[in-house]
């Protein structure tokens, strides 16, 4: 009996109850050696131990399962690494695992990474598609606008040319002598831009000022190599005093390309009438000198021989040069 009691006391103080201890407690309970309170304490310790042991076994089972799964993945990776030269991987996701995913990641994390990579690729494809559609749509609109704008400009130029053809200015021909004595006609200047001014050599101030302005316009346009050369012409309205010699001396004071034109009174009158130029000699003074009242305009003639524009005394050389530059840029050659 002493032996049994010492065994019970030893097991009672132990942290790990077992089957022998429980059996001894039951025996003592049956013999009346263990009180009710002691038996309840032992039974409680036994229940707590059973619960703790169950939790420990569950945790160990989970860890063992994960280690087994990781081991199988490692084996598969090594197999594919050693045999990738002879054939492709058997699963599409294995390529992604071998190149970018650590082997130590859990299965759920690996699946999440795969899903994230797939979503990112899809988003990039959608963004590129939207950009391509936007660029295509915008380019189509811009091309359509550009085409309509050019068509409108061409139509406007055609209408302008038709209007100029109907205007009875500069439509005729002329035949005059230049300041070197050579016969010149309108056909000699076809293909060139022409600035034309009507005046007379005895003009005290207005004609020299206008010819200086005309010369400045030609010099300004000559500075732009992309523009064609402009031919300046000076036609006298006083043929009785402005002969070839007088014109040759007079034109030397202005632009070097300036050509002076004169002729008989009838020839000069026909040339002025073609451009609707008014010219009327005034009364003579005691010295026989007189002033000619005439139209003060600078005419612009296109390479087709059509009158395009005119500039009065209110226009300066900069404004005239800019206007001529615009005419040159918008010029459309007439069909033969």
TrEMBL record:
<dbReference type="InterPro" id="IPR017276">
    <property type="entry name" value="Synth_of_cyt-c-oxidase_Sco1/2"/>
</dbReference>
<feature type="binding site">
    <location>
        <position position="203"/>
    </location>
    <ligand>
        <name>Cu cation</name>
    </ligand>
</feature>
<dbReference type="GO" id="GO:0005743">
    <property type="term" value="C:mitochondrial inner membrane"/>
</dbReference>
<feature type="disulfide bond" description="Redox-active">
    <location>
        <begin position="203"/>
        <end position="207"/>
    </location>
</feature>
<feature type="binding site">
    <location>
        <position position="207"/>
    </location>
    <ligand>
        <name>Cu cation</name>
    </ligand>
</feature>
<keyword id="KW-1133">Transmembrane helix</keyword>
<dbReference type="GO" id="GO:0033617">
    <property type="term" value="P:mitochondrial respiratory chain complex IV assembly"/>
</dbReference>
<feature type="transmembrane region" description="Helical">
    <location>
        <begin position="131"/>
        <end position="148"/>
    </location>
</feature>
<keyword id="KW-0812">Transmembrane</keyword>
<protein>
    <submittedName>
        <fullName>Synthesis of cytochrome C oxidase 2</fullName>
    </submittedName>
</protein>
<dbReference type="GO" id="GO:0005507">
    <property type="term" value="F:copper ion binding"/>
</dbReference>
<dbReference type="InterPro" id="IPR003782">
    <property type="entry name" value="SCO1/SenC"/>
</dbReference>
<dbReference type="GO" id="GO:0016531">
    <property type="term" value="F:copper chaperone activity"/>
</dbReference>
<comment type="similarity">
    <text>Belongs to the SCO1/2 family.</text>
</comment>
<dbReference type="GO" id="GO:0006878">
    <property type="term" value="P:intracellular copper ion homeostasis"/>
</dbReference>
<keyword id="KW-1015">Disulfide bond</keyword>
<keyword id="KW-0472">Membrane</keyword>
<feature type="binding site">
    <location>
        <position position="294"/>
    </location>
    <ligand>
        <name>Cu cation</name>
    </ligand>
</feature>
<dbReference type="Pfam" id="PF02630">
    <property type="entry name" value="SCO1-SenC"/>
</dbReference>
<keyword id="KW-0496">Mitochondrion</keyword>
<keyword id="KW-0186">Copper</keyword>
<dbReference type="InterPro" id="IPR036249">
    <property type="entry name" value="Thioredoxin-like_sf"/>
</dbReference>
<keyword id="KW-0999">Mitochondrion inner membrane</keyword>
<keyword id="KW-0479">Metal-binding</keyword>
